[in-house]
């Protein structure tokens, strides 16, 4: 089993390929809580995507929006993480863009969370034994979606504070 130090050393070996300036910005080697937890919205968003995709997507229109939001935010946050890891965030407009992206992601996730909660309530009212598994998966997706919303809002707030200080 690798220790945390071994993981940091192995990531440090990969970072020179991205450029020397990316080493300070890579979230897995950071020392602060905010830097170490910066990738949680991506993980939680991917979990929402998996939970919704594992159920029968009925009705298609509102759950299609939930799928779009989770995939959009997952891909966008992953690309954002790669840009920061490679040190491409050295210009002065990046903090504002960071705050803007995460605010848009938070609003998208808030709307998707409300839609998903409403559909889950409707499924729960007509619950039979065959629908119980779908209902439980949807409850898990609703909880994770609200957690992702909270994390994106917190990230947007901290990014806006960092933007104003820069």
Structure notes:
- The protein has one domain.
- Helices cover 73% and strands 0% of the residues.
- It has six helices and no strands.
- It has helices at residues 4-14, 33-36, 40-53, 60-85, 94-125, 132-165.
- Helix 3 runs antiparallel to helix 4 (60-85), helix 3 runs antiparallel to helix 6 (132-165) and helix 5 (94-125) runs antiparallel to helix 6 (132-165).
Identify the notable features of this structure and list them briefly.
mainly alpha, 166 residues, disordered N terminus, 6 helices
Q: Structural class, judged by helices and strands?
A: mainly alpha
Query: Ranges with pLDDT <50 over ≥5 residues?
Result: 1-33
Total DSSP E strands:
0
Assembly type of the shown chains?
A: single chain
Q: How many domain regions?
A: 1
Percent of residues in β-strands: under 5%
Helix/strand order, N-terminal first: HHHHHH
Family: Belongs to the MAL family.
GO cellular component, one term: membrane
Protein name: Myelin and lymphocyte protein
Keywords: Lipoprotein, Membrane, Transmembrane, Transmembrane helix
Short note summarizing the structure:
This is Myelin and lymphocyte protein. The chain has 166 residues and is mostly helical. The chain is 73% helix and 0% strand.
Secondary structure elements and their pairing?
Blueprint: H1 4-14, H2 33-36, H3 40-53, H4 60-85, H5 94-125, H6 132-165
Helix pairs in contact: 3-4, 3-6, 4-5, 5-6
């Amino acid at each position: 089993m690798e220790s945390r130090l071994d993981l940091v050393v192995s990531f440090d070996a990969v970072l020179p390929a991205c450029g020397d300036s990316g080493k300070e910005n890579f979230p897995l080697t950071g020392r602060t809580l905010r830097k170490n937890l910066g990738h949680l919205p991506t993980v939680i968003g991917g979990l929402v995507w998996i939970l919704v995709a594992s159920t029968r997507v009925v009705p298609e229109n509102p759950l299609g929006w939930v799928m779009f939001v989770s995939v959009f935010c997952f891909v966008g946050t992953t690309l954002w993480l790669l840009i920061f890891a490679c040190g491409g965030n050295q210009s002065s407009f990046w903090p504002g863009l960071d705050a803007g992206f995460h605010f848009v992601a938070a609003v998208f996730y808030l709307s998707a969370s409300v839609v998903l909660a409403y559909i889950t309530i409707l499924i729960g009212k007509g619950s039979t034994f065959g629908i119980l598994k779908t209902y439980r998966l949807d409850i898990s997706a609703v909880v994770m979606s609200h957690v992702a919303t909270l994390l994106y809002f917190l990230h947007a707030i901290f990014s806006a504070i960092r933007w104003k200080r820069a």
